[in-house]
Design brief:
Layout (H helix, E strand, L loop, with lengths): L1 E6 L28 H8 L9 E5 L3 H10 L6 E5 L5 H13 L6 E6 L7 H16 L3 E6 L10 E4 L11 E7 L4 H10 L2 E11 H11 L4 H9 L2 E3 L2 E3 L2 H5 L6 H6 L5 E6 L9 H7 L7 E3 L3 E4 L4 E5 L6 E4 L4 E5 L4 E5 L6 H10 L10 E4 L2 E8 L3 E8 L7 E3 L3 E9 L2 E5 L2 E5 L4 E4 L5 E4 L6 E9 L8 E4 L6
Parallel strand pairs: 1-2, 1-4, 2-3, 3-10, 5-11, 12-14, 13-15, 14-16
Antiparallel strand pairs: 4-8, 5-8, 6-7, 6-8, 7-11, 9-10, 16-17, 18-19, 19-20, 20-27, 21-28, 22-25, 22-27, 23-24, 23-26
Helix pairs in contact: 3-6, 3-7
């Protein structure tokens, strides 16, 4: 059996405004009905694979669990990283965790935000590399280039790939992201592959590689795993030793130093969706190169991507050429498609002006459901709050605001100090400033309410928690 190890961090700034730090691209259905994370989990789900091991951060842990539940995938474990330390510590932590159960077992490390249309071919490529991995090779996967891409690192083969069939080949070296001229040369040479950042090796082999090439990582990561604390079905790695681990990628820490490397070519289609231009390519443009979402219309346009992510906002393009236009409820991106990689510069500029749109998604996801701000005034705010069946907000109070709740769908169980009541559709309840209160959904359908806050300060940090079923600090 092969244990998939899915790396589920990252901020995805190049796909702003749909992907943001608070809700990055792997959790969004960018291509197809499932999210990229769900598609990654399903791709590694058959009789040859064990339940996946997922590494993520504290903010995403409930999103990970919820999205796996939606597609019927039961994870083997979900490890919570206290902070991002790059791929080497994350992969080492996964290996140390898996060593407890099966040190001889294979682990397939894959990012959570890639698109691989041909699932059957990908599984076949994985199995093609399994024998080499069991024999002690560190197997990486390289993508047959379709164009001279400057946004990827490359893998130089030590032998002729011939028809790029999925079989282990000798790897000569890793190559950094090239300039345009060098990328053209490498693609023309026919012995270079894109570095997909996907790896297959035995637990025993990768641990030996870390001990040989990055021994300084072993002690802090081992301590973080050993001192990890169970947290509602997750394992929260210990933060103090984790912080002492170097912030370094697996390529720099191990792969570029190892001599037991093999690469399996993959030519059946792949994208890391590293920009809106990649989303355009993977969305099957029409005869004029146009891609539109349900709430977008293109008139006499060429080579253009138009998306509206809000059912209440129609986007119309007329006579556009080489344009990317993405509309969200709180932000709109319009860019020349040749400048797709510069979207991250826009995010940096928004951060400089302290615009919350730079990092915060319009919907704020919580383990109990989500909320969004509808209207924000000087001393008031109106929110829509959706609570999942069985969901419960923390028992809390506020120093600076009072709240009115109006239930518009379902039934809410509301606690206010010592009073507990059921509030049905078209009914409301007032929560005075300072009152200890909680909202729950006791029903079988989502509960929706409108919240009107009034007060001198309306920030989310004005919450004093007394109890929380989700164990949030």
């Amino acid at each position: 059996m092969i244990t998939p190890v899915i790396l589920c961090g990252g901020s995805g700034t190049r796909l702003w405004p749909l992907s943001r730090k608070s809700y990055p691209k792997q959790f969004v259905p960018l291509v197809g009905e499932n999210t990229l994370f769900q598609a990654s989990a399903l791709r590694l789900c058959d009789d040859n694979f064990a339940p996946p091991l997922v590494l993520t951060n504290s903010d995403f842990r409930f999103i990970v669990a919820e999205q796996l539940t939606e597609i019927g995938v039961d994870p083997g474990a979900i490890l919570i990283e206290p902070e991002g330390r790059n791929t080497a510590p994350a992969i080492l932590a996964a290996a140390l965790w898996l060593e407890k159960g099966d040190p001889e077992g294979l682990m397939l490390v894959a990012p959570s935000d890639h698109v691989v249309p041909d699932t059957k071919a990908f599984r076949a490529a994985t199995l093609a590399g399994a024998e080499a991995a069991r024999a002690g090779q560190l197997v990486t996967f390289g993508i047959k280039p379709t164009h001279a891409e400057t946004g990827y690192g490359y893998l130089e083969l030590a032998e002729d790939p011939r028809d790029f069939a999925a079989q282990p080949l000798a790897l000569r070296r890793f190559v950094e992201k090239p300039n345009a001229e060098r990328a053209q040369e490498m693609v023309a040479a026919g012995k270079y592959l894109w570095n997909a950042g996907i790896f297959l090796f035995s637990v025993k082999t990768i641990l030996a590689a870390f001990r040989a090439h990055a021994p300084e990582l072993i002690a802090p990561v081992q301590a973080a795993v050993d001192q990890g604390a169970p947290d509602l079905g997750f394992l929260r790695l210990a933060p103090d030793p984790w912080a002492k681990a170097a912030d370094i990628s697996i390529d720099y820490a191990v792969m570029e130093k190892a001599d037991n490397l093999s690469v399996v070519p993959f030519a059946a289609g792949w994208s890391d969706l590293g920009g809106w231009d990649a989303v355009w390519r993977e969305s099957h443009p029409d005869a004029r190169g146009v891609v539109t979402s349900e709430h977008a219309t293109a008139l006499d346009c060429d080579d253009t991507l138009l998306r509206s992510e809000d059912a209440g906002m129609e986007v119309v393009g007329i006579g556009l050429k080489n344009i990317i236009a993405i509309a969200m409820p709180d932000a709109v991106l319009i860019a020349d498609s040749t400048r797709a990689q510069d979207v991250k510069l826009a995010v940096a500029a928004l951060k400089e002006k302290h615009a919350h749109q730079a990092t915060n998604f319009p919907k704020d996801h919580r383990p109990w459901g989500w909320f969004e701000s509808l209207v924000i005034g000087n001393r008031f705010q109106v929110k829509r709050i959706v609570v999942k069946p069985g969901g419960a907000l923390s028992l809390q109070s506020h120093h600076h605001r009072s709240e009115h709740w109006i239930v518009v769908e379902g039934t809410a169980k509301v606690t206010t100090d010592d009073v507990v009541r059921l509030v049905s559709e078209n009914q409301s309840v007032y929560i005075p400033l300072g009152a200890v209160h909680r909202m729950e959904n006791p029903g079988k359908v989502p509960m929706v309410l409108i919240e009107v806050q009034t007060g001198s300060y309306l920030g989310e940090d004005d919450i004093i928690r007394y109890e929380d079923v989700y164990a949030r600090n």
